Amino acid sequence: EPEVTQTPSHQVTQMGQEVILRCVPISNHLYFYWYRQILGQKVEFLVSFYNNEISEKSEIFDDQFSVERPDGSNFTLKIRSTKLEDSAMYFCASRGGGTDTQYFGPGTRLTVL
Amino acid sequence: AQSVAQPEDQVNVAEGNPLTVKCTYSVSGNPYLFWYVQYPNRGLQFLLKYITGDNLVKGSYGFEAEFNKSQTSFHLKKPSALVSDSALYFCAVRDRSSGSARQLTFGSGTQLTVLP
């Protein structure tokens, strides 16, 4: 069964550093998402991406964040200058056209020191 | 704005007993409702969804959920719990009137522990 994959599983970085979280969505899916979950809190929507552009973004997704689909398979989330409060589990998800079901990856745990 | 409430952080049930994990929602229009499960060190796995039609929805691993519009609830149920059902369960909602992005709003999660 196809799965969404994410790398790395755990990323530790220093405050102020740039990080790139990587995702490989399910191959025939068209819609891509990033969510995050701060420890002990809800899973929160960050951004959605379709047809090579952002379709929706939340208030959390400020100028420090960017997304990219650099090739036909990868979908990345970049945090330009990490803050302590960016420490969270980041989930990538993808969805095919004509369906509402999003399929999630295993997440990347980001720890900002 | 849409929201989801999972009033119980923790649910404990004995193996073989029925289980219920509660979820209530708030949306401005008609809802699409989802349940996801998260096992340790794994991603969110889709269990089931309600879009339209029969209020009782059947999903993976013997789980089902009942949509109740008057109570704005979508409780997850299973007639006979297994120890392997122990995991973190998330309810999520999408407002049908939301845009093409169709992003989900999640509840805070309920940790289900099935005791042998």
Structure characterization notes:
- The complex is a heterodimer of chains A (113) and B (116).
- Chain A is mainly beta.
- Chain A has strands spanning 5-7, 10-13, 19-24, 31-37, 43-50, 53-57, 65-68, 75-79, 88-95, 103-104, 108-112.
- Chain A is globular, with a radius of gyration of 13 Å.
- Chain B is mainly β and 116 residues long.
- Helices cover 0% and strands 52% of the residues of chain B.
- In chain B, the strands form 3 sheets. In chain B, strands 2, 5, 6, 10, 11 and 12 form a 6-stranded mixed beta sheet that branches. A 4-stranded antiparallel beta sheet of chain B has the order 3-9-8-7, with no helix packed on it. Chain B has a two-stranded antiparallel ribbon with strand order 1-4.
- The termini of chain B are far apart.
- The model of chain B has no long low-confidence stretch (mean pLDDT 91).
- The chains are: A mainly beta (113), B mainly beta (116).
Q: Tell me the span between the first and last alpha carbons of chain B.
A: 41 Å
Total strands of chain B: 12
The largest chain-to-chain contact, stated as pair and per-chain residue counts, equals:
A-B, 27 and 25 residues
- The helix/strand class of chain A is mainly beta
Number of helices of chain A: 0
Mean pLDDT of chain A: 93
Q: Tally the beta strands of chain A.
A: 11
The gyration radius over C-alpha positions of chain B equals: 14 Å
Strand content of chain B: over 45%
Features of this protein?
heterodimer; A: 113 residues; seven-stranded mixed sheet; 11 strands; B: 116 residues; six-stranded mixed sheet; four-stranded antiparallel sheet; 12 strands; 52% strand
What is the topology?
The complex is a heterodimer of chains A (113) and B (116).
Chain A: E1 5-7, E2 10-13, E3 19-24, E4 31-37, E5 43-50, E6 53-57, E7 65-68, E8 75-79, E9 88-95, E10 103-104, E11 108-112
Chain B: E1 3-5, E2 10-14, E3 19-21, E4 24-26, E5 31-38, E6 44-50, E7 56-58, E8 64-68, E9 73-78, E10 87-95, E11 105-106, E12 110-115
Parallel strand pairs in B: 2-12
Antiparallel strand pairs in B: 1-4, 3-9, 5-6, 5-10, 7-8, 8-9, 10-11, 10-12
